[in-house]
Amino acid sequence: MFGMLAVLVYLLAMGIPIYLLYRFHSQAWYWHSLAVLAAIALGFFPIPFELQKPEFDLLFGFVFIMLMIWGAGGLILFRTHHHTPHHERHA
Question: What is the pTM of this model?
Answer without folding.
Answer: 0.79
